[in-house]
Specification:
The protein is of the alpha/beta class. 48% of the residues lie in helices and 16% in strands.
Length: 259
């Protein structure tokens, strides 16, 4: 039987991680910047968006780095690992939760002798604790984080590393599952992946042609990052829009004749 590799994004795909927001909101008070709390968050995200716009993604997803630079811009001194420490504090408060259907899908992948690969732009120091806290870590055959990738999503090379891992485990069929219009959906399309699941609440779950979703993906990327995309060559490709990971499991069961 041909093995499949299911390649997953993490945040907002498999888990809902509120420890990020917890850390970001607590930083100003820890630094004694209560009166500048809103300004701190604004400057933090401005820096993130600017780094993405410039294509310096390894820096964009290093939350401790952004925290230190934001604090410095506002005249404060910041410990090197403050964001990380506060994020771990948030995890201990159970602020990272597994999304509906994640455990069931991951269990099925393992039981059916298929492969699960994580492909995330987050660094291991942030993602591994989240995976351990949510008890998802043991379901993965391979984890590719920012530390492991020469270029981050949406670059072709990031997805090619995941494909290489899949083939190493004997899987040639690749299924990609992610939530982000730019990093995940555009990235997977641009990398030539044939089966793409987009988990989102903003569209009715069904199969779409890229042409039907292109305007939204283009506008989102332009407004958020100032990056202009051209999806014309992907217009006839398909994207499976889902609202829950359970829908993937239901589709797999239908293929096998299980109700």
């Amino acid at each position: 039987m041909q093995r499949k590799a299911y390649v997953f994004d993490l945040d907002s795909t498999l888990i809902q991680n509120r420890s990020f927001r917890y850390a970001l909101e607590k930083i100003p008070s820890v630094l004694g910047m209560n009166e500048e709390a809103d300004l701190f968050k604004k400057k933090f995200f401005e820096m993130y968006y600017n780094l993405v716009r410039r294509g310096t993604l390894h820096e964009a997803f290093e939350w401790d780095l952004l925290t230190r630079h934001t604090a410095e811009k506002l005249g404060a001194t910041c410990p090197e690992d403050l964001f990380h420490r506060l994020m771990l504090e948030g995890l201990e408060k159970n602020l990272a939760t597994v999304k509906n259907g994640a455990i069931e899908l991951m269990s099925w992948i393992r039981e059916s002798n298929n492969i699960a690969i994580l492909l995330t732009n987050g660094y291991r120091k942030y993602q591994i604790p989240s995976l351990k806290k949510t008890q998802l870590i043991d379901y993965f055959d391979s984890i590719l984080a920012a530390d492991d990738l020469e270029k981050l999503k949406p670059s072709k090379s990031a997805f090619e590393q995941a494909v290489w891992q899949a083939k190493k485990f004997g899987a040639n069929d690749i299924v990609y599952i992610g939530d982000h219009p730019y990093f995940d959906v555009y990235g997977a399309l641009n990398a030539g992946l044939k089966v793409i699941f987009w988990i989102t609440e903003y569209h009715m779950p069904k199969n779409y042609k890229v042409e039907d979703l292109a305007k939204e993906i283009i506008m989102y990327t332009k407004e958020r990052y100032g990056i202009k995309l051209d999806l014309t060559k992907f217009h006839n490709r398909s994207i499976h829009v889902i609202s829950s990971l359970k829908m993937i499991l239901n589709l797999e069961n239908l293929k096998r004749g299980i109700k």
